[in-house]
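Sorry to interrupt, but I need a hand with the structure work. Leave the record below and I will have a look:
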Amino acid sequence: MAAKKDLNSALPLTVENDTAPSSSITYANEVVAIIAGLAANEVEGIAGMCSVSGNILNKNRNVTKGVKVEIGTEEAAVDLYVVVEYGTPIQRAATEAQESVRKAIESMTGLHVVRVDVHVQALSFEKENKLLQAGVENAALEAGEPEEEKVPEVRAEEPVKAEKPKAVKEKETKAKAGEPEKKEDTTSEP
């Protein structure tokens, strides 16, 4: 029992006593960029990201595109290049993206986010087009117009071979068997 007492007395009382000042945690830029990209894409009104050169990317693409990150030992700065859905108040969407990115990075890494700059590169009309299409369909239903009939899917089948006439089949069979061909008398006697 005395051995157990000696082991417990050797353990540090606090974690701070065991932490060496030379220890550090570093994050790759891509790790912080992924966190920022995912957080920005979750904001309502953000249709997707844009590469720095202006190429539009949708939400399902690589989330680090459209995110530029600078990381120091204790701080991070982020630039977001976004596409906003048409009809969304841009100021609100950009502010929510800034807050979402700041909270995500700070909670996951412990880095202090000194700035999140949002660069609105384009507007997306995809949601507007879907709403317009839905409105047209609803108007047609209300007017009593029948819905467009869906054409059943037709699968390609093997082509159907036409049957040869019986006389042609008999000729071919006799020709294969080596029988001489009978000539029909087409002259008629008066």
Observations:
- The CA atoms of residues 77 and 115 lie 5 Å apart.
